[in-house]
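Hi U.,

Before I forget, here's the chain from the pilot set. I'm dumping it here mostly so it's searchable later in email.
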Amino acid sequence: MEVMIPVPETAHATTPDDLVDPSVELVSRWLAQATAEENRADRAAAGKLRSILADPDGIAFTLEFVDRVARPDSDTVGAEQLADLVARHGTPAFAGRVDGALLRAGATLAPRVPRLVMPLVRRRLRQMVGHLLVDARHRQLADHIDKRQAEGYRLNVNLLGEAVLGNAEADRRLAMTMDLIENSSVDYVSVKVSSVAAQLHPWAFEHNVERLTSRLTPMFQAAAANHTFVNLDMEEYRDLALTIEVFERMLDMPEFLDLEAGIVLQAYLPDAAGALERLVSWAGQRKDRGGADIKIRLVKGANLAMERVDAAMHGWKLATYSTKADTDANYKRCLDWLMQPHRMRAVRLGLASHNLFDVAFARLLSVERGVESRVEFEMLQGMAPAQARTVKSEAGAMLLYTPAVAPADFDAAISYLVRRLEENASPENFLHSLVDLAPASQSFRTEAARFREAVARRNQVVAAAMRDQNRHAGVDFSGPRDVFENAPDTDPTLQANRQWLAAALESGSGVRTPDQISTTDEVDRVVARLAASPWLRSGRRERASVLDRLGDTIERRRGEFVAVMVDEANKTVAEADKEVSEAVDFAHYYARCADDLEWNPTVESEPLGVVAVVPPWNFPVAIPVGGVASSLAAGNPVVLKPAPEVPRCSALIVDACRQAGLDESTVAYLRCPDNEVGRHLITHPQVG
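Structure:
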């Protein structure tokens, strides 16, 4: 039976700010109720987690154990890692007497009999995390679902797996998901588009959409036939636009017009607000055509570390908010905006959060605005069972996001377990506080203050995409040059950049490839001209300035370089674009080297003379630019002999040199065959 919820007295003119105090009071009551009704299993799980967090080395030991001991396929490697881990950390306090003894015995015996010990170690780990994961095998999964349904829960089953790198793995994962959908005990399945098709590179956006709609059509047909709810999940920012486009196209098909399905939005993306508006508008139009509702599952987002690494590697702005506080504020903004009857007429909301303050706020807001029947509360399997049970008793239902993995694929669960451990270890995460959260505790006051701040700032955080790179607009070269910075790769998640690429590939480059020389006399004439080059007497500051101009020129002509590499060297777009970035980096890096020589009076250097740059074919732009730029930085004129397979790439490099102010007396292009003419150049007495 649903419990009555205390609502503010000003029920008909209530704002989200008015619900802050009632939400805090509701959380206090929930915590007291959860503590009173906590069962033995709840206390055991909470106690183990509390022990890990209380032990100074607990998280470090557990993360290393999961990642280094349990992950390796080789029993020998796992045994060596177990012995090393226990030798360095000892037996962690949280392990207790029994597990501590098992750890010590295992660490001693594992290197001697790894095939005997390591299966037992992995089995014990599966036992310890059994409340977080379920067995994906048909009978075991059905039994688990039946048990949880008897307790009043619905389950959202998600197959765990590592990144899909090939078609065989994508086919296997798709088949496993189809088996889930056709399992009569399963009525709710989550699947990522990145798990059912391999090599979904963002450059091929439209192609990816067509591939995915083709591969997902049988899945949606099976879902309709078996009355199974399908939710499209996502992890990476790169999948946001793709997942939304696929979701809308699938449900716009006439055969799926009356099928209800769901999609995830991550509130740690500032893009979430715009995506939410798009989905609500589209769902309303679909509803007007006789279509079914959709469900939007709103989560905070759990891949911040990965997004930071991805942004740093490519030189892009961070796609997510940089602070947890901003994410929390955006979560409240999305709830406030969505929870209006006219916006939810075609949309149901999956409120996915363990933060009881968020849950209480959403519950009160939904009641206040009359949309409580359109809201479903969701939590992770096994993470906070007592609190989930308490919220379920009040809201009337609870959906548990349930990771499933077959024993043979247990290694796929490692990354999931590491993520859950990291969440619990982060002081900013609510789950970290939940282990000892109680009304009037310091943890409660801290979390309540964070909640109040998030509600107050909900309309102040940025609500537009952080990524704004636009290759059509060019690059600003006016910044300071005293510090080297890597050139950013082109961001393929942005539509403007994909349009820029299409235009670049269509236009190509008008640079002509010079004719091939055929005599050694021609080699001698080119070398003689370079040997008298005024560049040999150039100042270091002048060299730096010219090399910076070269880097800027290559950057400005990025599209031409990409097009030529794709056409002549058979590079993929992604490979070619990164290679242009590397070439730009070489030019600016060696400019800084020349700068360093200029301002360091203790370093004396003299040019060597004419330098031959003879690059291979497989990196037709980056390697030759690196050779040319380093030689020029040291005051040497250069003769560039292209690899026979890619003469146009080198011709474009030399054309960029000309544009930067380097004439034929400084950089020469010498296309010659790999016979006696080529050997004459390489062995020329005036060429280094």
